[in-house]
Design a protein that fits this description.
NADH Oxidase; two-stranded antiparallel ribbon; binds iron/sulfur cluster; 230 residues; alpha+beta; 8 strands; six-stranded antiparallel beta sheet; globular
Length: 230
C-alpha cells in the first residue's frame, strides 16, 4: 500500500524539544526548510499488511490461526473480543538512514537531529493514516478496530517481532530484523491491531492504559479510569 507521510509541524516541534511550531526559532526553521527538501527527495515509503485470524485468547496469550502465538497480557486483553488481527510493517526506506549517518559523520549534528526527528514524525504519521483508513473501511462493514500495538512497547517483548514478521507473506518487504530484533531501515514501524465485530453499539474496543498504574509511562494513550466509589 502506498501512503505518503506528512510531517505534522507541531509534532515535529515536540520531537525537537519545543511545544509548538510557532515558537521555534527563525534559524531552526530555516534548517527545517532545508531538511524538508532533502527528506522529500530521499523518502521511499512503503507499507505491508496482512490479515490473520485469531484462534483463541487465553492466559496472556493470543493464539493465531496461522500458528504463532503472541505473549502479552495487555495485548491479549485488548484482542479478547476480536476475530482477526492486521499485522503491518511500515518503512521510509534506507536512504534517510544513510543521509542521517552522512550528516553525523560530517559533524552536521543539528541537521542530522532535525532529519531524524522528521523521519520519526513521518513514520508515525504513515501508521496513523493507515490505521484511520482501515478504521473507516471496517466501520462501513459494521466492525471496529482496536488501538495499534507494537513489539517492544508496553508488556509485549521485542523478540516477538520475529513472529510478526513471519506472518507477512509479501516477498517485497524491504525491512530486516537484526539479532536484537531491531529493524533496518531504522525508520520503520511494525505492529498489529484487532478487528472486532459489532460496531452498532458504539466503540467497544479496550485500551489497556485505562487500568494501568504506570501514570508516568511515555507510551500512555489514555488517562487512568476512575474507579467508582462504593
Ligand atoms: S500506560 Fe504504558 S505500560 Fe501501562 S498499559 Fe499503557 S502503554 Fe502499557
Amino acid at each position: 500500500m502506498e501512503i505518503i507521510p506528512i510531517i505534522e509541524k507541531d509534532e515535529l516541534a515536540r520531537h525537537l524539544g519545543g511545544d509548538e511550531f510557532g515558537n521555534i526559532s527563525h534559524s531552526t526553521r530555516l534548517k527545517i526548510e532545508k531538511m524538508e527538501t532533502i527528506f522529500e527527495k530521499l523518502v521511499e515509503p512503503s507499507l505491508y499488511h496482512q490479515n490473520t485470524g485469531i484462534d483463541s485468547v487465553e492466559k496472556g496469550t493470543v493464539h493465531l490461526e496461522e500458528g504463532p502465538e503472541f505473549k502479552s497480557p495487555k495485548l491479549s486483553r485488548m484482542l479478547k473480543d476480536c476475530d482477526d488481527i492486521i499485522c503491518y510493517i511500515a518503512t521510509l526506506g534506507d536512504d534517510i538512514d544513510g543521509e542521517i549517518k552522512r550528516l553525523m559523520d560530517n559533524k552536521h549534528m543539528a541537521e542530522a537531529y532535525i532529519l531524524d526527528a522528521m523521519a520519526s514524525v513521518a513514520a508515525d504519521n504513515m501508521v496513523a493514516t493507515f490505521h484511520r483508513h482501515m478504521k473507516d473501511e471496517y466501520k462501513n462493514q459494521g466492525k471496529q478496530v482496536t488501538l495499534c500495538f507494537s513489539p517492544g512497547y508496553c508488556d509485549w517483548p521485542v523478540t516477538e517481532q520475529k513472529k510478526l514478521f513471519s506472518l507477512i507473506e509479501s516477498q517485497d518487504v524491504e525491512v530486516e530484523l537484526n539479532d536484537s530484533c531491531l529493524m533496518t531501515p531504522r525508520k520503520s514501524i511494525s505492529g498489529v491491531f484487532g478487528i472486532q465485530s459489532d460496531y452498532e453499539h458504539g466503540d467497544k474496543t479496550y485500551n489497556p492504559c485505562w487500568d494501568c498504574n504506570k501514570t508516568d509511562c511515555p507510551a500512555r494513550r489514555a488517562p487512568k479510569r476512575e474507579r467508582k466509589k462504593t
